[in-house]
């Protein structure tokens, strides 16, 4: 079930990036907004998730998000650029709700569940990048994007088997968790990792095609990037559970991405497969954050919910700003050079934030607010404590 839910989180985004050069209405500023929009909306959806979970519970929240995901993927291809943008926004709200709930479902279970979750993200990314261009080539970009609604529709009835986590009262406020250096480090690191990840998913085929690489080769490079991310999605959770040398893992994740971006900057058509491979290895940075959320929350489900909301919500908002700036710079300069230099700067910031994120420490349960006692029970306790019982 966890694998199937995680599988729904990436194809709608990677598929859009793979089909972007074929969408006639998505050019210039519209394309820049389409790449940055998922990040903004995922941020807003992540911040809303704890409130919905507190009101409706985990199962109802996830099922409603799946219904929205399926409907929005069909609706966004039914009209012009406005409907495409609005539909993509709704798709990302649904993705954010599911992504924020998943650490709560995985938390407290075996390492297999963590690996299953992170690997499902890699499989979804790969499927979106590999299958969407094939569908577009045999029909149109509208069918290529709408086809992924079937995956969400199939998952809806299966989501009824989720272990229902009841609505939780007393969820800590974000500002309470934000006081932790660990939480801030995870949030900034996730934001910068997401910036690079979404820029790669959204722009890599376009960068290679502008450099003279054939369209099918450019799409295959994106697929290679996603495929190489799969073993990293398995390796990172395993490393976090078995090894203590987290800075070494961080270097393994950041340095190949720097090599890939530098290659795209200097000679994109010289070795596109090599540059895509380096970027694919760096995709494992997402798994580092997702695996760390429950561990940093000390196993407390209430802190897990709020920390997940902060990491996803604020992290995606950070990534949205960075992605929009890079996209608008490309639209203004009609060149990828400045944008790729900015991505290198983001990777440097990712390395710095990563060292703060992997430092030992966790958010203690004393950050939680006190549970509120219902008024009627409180009055009953005061009454029974102040009035003596009559002797029989």
Could you please describe the fold and organization of this structure?
- This protein has 392 residues and is mainly α.
- It has one domain (2-363): MFS general substrate transporter like domains (Growth Hormone, Chain: A, Up-down Bundle), CATH 1.20.1250.20.
- It contains 17 helices and no strands.
- Helix 2 runs parallel beside helix 10 (181-210), helix 10 runs antiparallel to helix 14 and helix 12 (246-266) runs antiparallel to helix 16.
- The longest helix is centred in the last third of the chain and has 33 residues, at 301-333.
- Mean pLDDT is 79; it is low at 371-389.
Number of alpha- plus pi-helical segments: 17
Order of helices and strands: HHHHHHHHHHHHHHHHH
Distance between the termini: 59 Å
- How many β-strands, per DSSP? 0
Report the average pLDDT across residues.
79
The outline comes out as globular
Q: What is the CATH domain class?
A: Mainly Alpha
